[in-house]
Amino acid sequence: MALGVLFILEVVILFSFIVTGIFMFVPKNNITVHKIFFALAIMLSVLITVMDATSLPSNFIPQIVIAWLGMVPSAIAVVIAVAKGRPNTVAKLLVMFSSLYGALCYLFIL
User: Fold this and answer.
1) What's the confidence (pLDDT) of residue 76?
2) CB proximity list for 47: less than 8 A, separation 6 or greater
3) How far is Cα 22 from Cα 41, in angstroms, rounded to an integer?
4) Per-residue pLDDT reduced to its tens digit, 4-17
5) 3 DSSP assignment
6) What does the alpha-carbon distance between residue 60 and residue 48 come to, in Å, rounded to a whole number?
7) Helix, coil or strand: residue 53
8) Rounded Cα gap, residues 14 and 48, in angstroms
């Protein structure tokens, strides 16, 4: 029962990330909108990673480490966005990869 509820939560987060990803790549002249959706996408990818890593039993150490590695692309994306002053396409793709990695880890590790 608990894994079913966790799976439903994961699907809802992924759906919201898809909507966020669409609005993150929509070409507009407003940089603030891009920054807001970029920040939201980072928060969602971190949430997925934390859910993956903390939902595993404590004796699954290799799987927990693999799950935590999902934050590395998001961290690199943040560094790129801060260095450039705004999120560029590479940073956005890294955040999307991080969320997809988290979703795949959830499906294949659990």
Assistant:
1) 93
2) 13
3) 10
4) 777 788 788 888 88
5) H
6) 18
7) helix
8) 8
The encoded tokens of residue 63 equal 């799987």
Per the structure block, which two tokens stand in for 78?
Answer: 């943040």
Question: For residue 90, what is the enclosing H or E element?
Answer: helix 89-109
Enter the tokens of residue 94: 């890294």
Angle at 44 between CA 11 and CA 24, to 5 degrees: 100
- Residue where the block lists tokens 């990869």: 97
Which residue, chain included where needed, has tokens 């998001």?
A: 74
Q: What three-state secondary structure class fits 12?
A: helix
**In the numeric block, which tokens belong to residue 30?**
């407003």
* Predicted TM-score of the model (pTM): 0.82
Instruction: List, in order, residues 6 or more apart from 103 with CB less than 8 Å away.
Output: 10, 14, 48
